[in-house]
Amino acid sequence: MAVSALLRTGAVVVAPGGAARCHVLIRNNSAVVDQFVFTVRGAPADWTEIKPAVANLMPRQEVSVELTFRPPRSHEVPAGEHPFALRIASREDPAGSVVQEGVVTVEPFTEVAAGVVPETSTARRIGRHTLALDNLGNHPVKVEVGAVDKDERLTFRRKPARLELPLGHTTFARVDARPRKYFWKGENVPLPFKIVVAVPDAQEIELDARLDQKALIPRRVFWLVSILFGLLMVLVIIVTLLLRQQPVSIAGPSPERPSSSAATTTTTGSAAPTTASSAPSSAPGPSRVAGGGGPSVSAPTGGRAVTGRFRIETRAYPNVGGGPQLFSYVVPAGARYRVLSVVLRNPAADTGQLQIRHGSVVVGTVDLAVINRDGNDELTFVPDDPPLVRPGERITLAVVCTNRRDPCTPTGDFTVALVR
């Protein structure tokens, strides 16, 4: 054999983002000068440095080759053992090449990033907040979600309270905030609180959030009652004035003035129908098909729905791993829709990509920058094969946001045909 090799350290331990070294003693056993090339095989090859990478050795000469392992601090290099092999290839005797095997162990590290959407919710009874958790470490980690209200004016519900974060994925949880007390009218009351994420072997993550509690009775109800009361008073005044101008006699005809009595009777008989005909009449308005969370549907004469519309609004955050963020509309029971067209709007000139999906089928893909190409912030998309969406199925806008900081907020206005 032209070459022999001896791995002095068979097991190496290294921290992510750090460095660890081992040495291999190479000896030329042949009787001629030979050149040897050293390469590393296995998963550590991408983050292993070899010095020297090539060596020319005289007969019976030895050289020490240094392997430096530098795994990145990333979820792409999982914690644990990573076998490797050092191949020593001889130029003069290719068949006499040898391989030395070893194991490098990457130590675990924990890093979790979190965000809450929205930070401020507005509701009368329950404020709903979505918590996004990214596992940036190199091993799965279990976390616990909690919420703290120092003024004790809120109660919380977490769905789920405990969850496991896989490597390189975004996991979502929901935190619902419910006020302990309600009020009937007045301005919104801000109720701040903190969402706390407990991470093992790491510092707790605290996120500020707030519920703006609204009154149980909206302001417009008081305005409507005031307007109706004012109209009622005006109507009472008008009716009172009319009755004063045309008094009605309930006395019988006078025998002394028969002609005057007859005239009075004639006037009285004509006054009642006039007053009755001046009362407002109500007629039924046009029919409207709605309900169940479905789209607003236009109905021609005859009451049969033909077309309808609904909107999907999005708010996708940049730098969120795990693929596109999904925003869906679920078709209610009792109807089937065929999607005719979609008006896509991008008012904030966001950058990224938007997909229209029917369940898991991609109907179309649009670059957000294309929507604003001609100075217009909308684009009409007409599918080549309009999908038929059944009750319980989803129409989804999948958004990949490449903004630097601000979230992407494109919307889609769908025009559908009702299929019986």
Automatic annotation (TrEMBL):
<feature type="transmembrane region" description="Helical">
    <location>
        <begin position="221"/>
        <end position="243"/>
    </location>
</feature>
<keyword id="KW-1133">Transmembrane helix</keyword>
<protein>
    <recommendedName>
        <fullName>Hydrolytic protein</fullName>
    </recommendedName>
</protein>
<keyword id="KW-0472">Membrane</keyword>
<feature type="compositionally biased region" description="Low complexity">
    <location>
        <begin position="251"/>
        <end position="289"/>
    </location>
</feature>
<keyword id="KW-0812">Transmembrane</keyword>
<feature type="region of interest" description="Disordered">
    <location>
        <begin position="250"/>
        <end position="305"/>
    </location>
</feature>
